[in-house]
């Protein structure tokens, strides 16, 4: 589903959460990166039709979100997993999904129950379908969350920071699930975890202080750190020039990877960057250096 955003602004009192966002999203999985407070949740909530924009234009699948008709049309084709999804602790996943299905207008009881069963299968929760939600781990809760978002077979799936707080194994499992859902759908994934985008998305955008700093192919964001990423191996003190992205202690010394416009030491070796290093290079180039 095609999304077109033009000069989108949203203020909360004196806080400007979105400050003139222009963005185009087409099918597949799209990663929205940004630090805490960058405006990701605000953008997701506007796209989901639960928060109005202050100004600007958002068109989703040909529907203008500034009109009620447009919002209703989009909500019919939308699945949304907000950052904080309230689950009813005394319900089982089957009961919870059945309830959300009713709210989404899936009136045919047998068809709804069928869909709930299929979705529990898809997210790997069939074995615990009869257990109360209050005993579920963070990863299991997130999987219930994605199942409720998928009720009604939406063509657009919006997921806000879905991997926060998950252990590494759960995180990998969850993002693999998201990738598998992106085939025929557009999946918009908001996150501050660069690795989630590196592993799942071809297209990405980076938000900072309510503005789009970058939008395009993930490989082009990685390329931002081309020629400015270095490796240094030393048993001495850490490099002070540039941003140290990783430090791994090995028998021959600590291996530092550094993003810096200049070689951070005479024996620094230029290396191929990762997406995380591309992100760091972008953020660094966008941050004015302190004067003096
Ligand atoms: N309902 C609100 N009332 C007042 N300020 C808000 C509201 N929602 C968001 N903001 C402010 O807007 C800015 C953007 O917030 P937003 O939650 O969209 O960022 P984010 O990128 O999703 O960050 P996080 O990853 O921390 O959720 C922040 O300064 C935040 O404090």
From TrEMBL:
The coiled-coil segments of this chain are none
**ABC transporter domain spans which residues?**
3-234
User: What GO annotations for molecular function exist for this entry?
Assistant: ATP binding
Q: Which SMART domains match?
A: AAA (SM00382)
Q: Where are the transmembrane segments?
A: none
Q: What Gene3D superfamilies does its record include?
A: P-loop containing nucleotide triphosphate hydrolases
* Family matches, as Pfam families: ABC_tran (PF00005)
Kindly state which keywords UniProt assigns to this record, in alphabetical order.
ATP-binding, Nucleotide-binding, Transport
> What PANTHER family does the record point to?
ABC TRANSPORTER, ATP-BINDING PROTEIN (PTHR43335)
Family recorded in the similarity comment: Belongs to the ABC transporter superfamily.
Q: What is the protein's given name? A: ABC transporter ATP-binding protein
Protein source organism: Asanoa iriomotensis
Q: What is the lineage of its organism?
A: Bacteria, Bacillati, Actinomycetota, Actinomycetes, Micromonosporales
